[in-house]
Amino acid sequence: MFDLILRRANLPDGRKAQDIAIRDGKIAEIAPNIDATAQEEIDATGRLASPPFVDPHFHMDATLSLGLPRMNRSGTLLEGIALWGELRPTLTIDALVSRALRYCDLAVTQGLLAIRTHVDTSDPKLTTVQAMLEVQQKVKPYIDLQLVAFPQDGYFRAPEGVQSLTRALDMGVNIVGGIPHFERTMAEGQASVEALCRLAAERGLPVDMHCDETDDPQSRHVETLAQQTIRHGLQGRVAGSHLTSMHSMDNYYVSKLIPLIAESQMNVIPNPLINIMLQGRHDSYPKRRGMTRVPELMAAGINVSFGHDCVMDPWYAMGSGDMLEVGHMAIHSAQMGSLEDKTKIFNALTINSAKTMGLENYGLAPGCNADLILLQARDPAEALRLKATKLLVIKSGKIIARTAPRIGSLFLDGRPSDIDPAIGFAPDY
């Protein structure tokens, strides 16, 4: 007797009509036609079952603050930073917690059960840190929330940046962040990478830096980050987020840089929605698109995962909490349109991101946590094309969210009455 059996589900690796049996919060068995009973059985009818979505790069302290203190008129990264600087002194723990919990409610319905959020440490009051630590505890039963100490105004540039980041770590934030391209000079940016990697090594902590989020091809702090990763023995524990300057670098330099990143075993986190929106702002035409070199990084064996980054905040007036929207944009901006490419993109939203965050017992295999989602699609390509509805969200073997399938009603003589966008439109591959 199992607690739950999900029958006839397709899996992201191409297996079809698989039964997934769950007992005591773990996946017990995956096979066709499991001959057993369960307290509850659900027929997936050939829909796609997947591990939950994972967002390895987000700003939960800013989420849902759109319009405070006013709208970002230029839509630029720098005006967003300025607006956040104006809003920050007015922030309260209650307001931060309330907005974050509302976002987490949305995230769960979208099948998003693990998030890494960067928490601004530039204000010595550390109101944001206190609030996000509280949120982390509140959502612990259903979201794995990781916190990064992020010196938004610069580790050296902010008046008390060094001391504030250290205090945030002492309070319980356990990932070291940075933003070297926002320091006053390239030299100070390099020095910040060196200091922060040394700090992480001394404390035994991971590193996740906003790195080279600019169109400037001379912004090459990722090179220092990779070198410092190797120097301090941090391989596999470091993430470079954004890396948009790589979009503008010359090919010869990149041909040297990518092997260095691969040697360092760095994780790379592009943020397609935000990168495509904020980069190229100094260009007329041709206009650069700004996202880093995803296909080339993947081809080099580097672990690439995608972040949502922002949802309705001073930097980005859109966003939905749906990681399939992120992947949908990645397909277009990286020009990765083949079936194989789409599977890679889907994996970047799930297993690759789980690797970046170091999640344990994640996946679809016996012994893994029974955390999974059922999508209104038959495979990863269709899920990304449709930004598919998350029909079921399961945490530790329990259904925690359910959404009705998207079905259109048609009132035309001689035509079908119900239209399911995931049935009958795509060819058999």
TrEMBL record:
Any keyword DNA damage?
no
Under the heading InterPro entries, the entry gives:
Amidohydro_3 (IPR013108), Metal-dep_hydrolase_composite (IPR011059), Metal_Hydrolase (IPR032466), Metallo-hydrolase_Enzymes (IPR052349)
Q: Origin organism of this chain?
A: Cypionkella aquatica
What is the name of the protein in this document? Cytosine deaminase
Q: Which is an annotated GO molecular function term of this record?
A: metal ion binding
Query: The Amidohydrolase domain covers which part of the protein?
Result: 40-400
| Gene it is expressed from | codA1
**Keywords assigned:** Hydrolase, Metal-binding
- GO BP annotations, alphabetical order: cytosine catabolic process
